[in-house]
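Deliverable D5.2: sample structural annotation.
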Amino acid sequence: MIFKQLFDQKSSTYTYLIASSKGREALIIDPVLENVNDYISLLKDLDLELVKVIDTHIHADHVTGASELKELTKCSTIMGENTPAETVEIKVKDDEYINLDNLKIRAMYTPGHTSDSYSFLMDNYLFSGDTLLINGTGRTDFQNGNAKHAYNSIFNKLLKLPEETLLYPAHDYKGEKVSTIGKEKKYNPRLQVKSEDEYVEIMNNLNLKKPAEIDFNVKKNINLGA
């Protein structure tokens, strides 16, 4: 299997490229518009054909490269069925599978950070978007975010996965690249709560600044960056 983790410095976004082997079909998760040329070069270097691109949710901190990649490669765009992006080609349901050669990727509806947030599980690789981060969790104070929904998504879905499951989030701000479900259960400070109410109390009192370009980015991303 080919697996590449790519990083956008400006928005601290992780983008993931997956393929079963060289010369085969590829998929990209959470592309950043400014980095599309880099993705195209990497695809050429690895002799890969991009066939699918996934956004885990409507991002607030960067513009997706989904439409640009579609224009350049004719790939299909994919998001969860709860997305407000009407132009997305394939809307997957909770527990639906996306096929890529012999690889199967399970869509998991994990709302809370936003109302359209999905995570994607491939074997023991979990691409959690902004729902579950390394030593943190996604904020819940915009885009129909909901701390109770986030608690349910994290504690009743993601943390029920095997502890050795590898966690690959959409962002990290401290240089961390990968964790495991087991490590997060033990060490993530946001997860050391005894109840849903305690988690909601924490999330509702973070008092974080509004992302600088959220209005522009969300408007663009509802059209897949076009």
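Annotation notes: The domain at 2-208 is CATH 3.60.15.10 (Metallo-beta-lactamase; Chain A). The CA atoms of residues 35 and 197 lie 40 Å apart.
The annotation will be released with the project's public dataset once the embargo ends.
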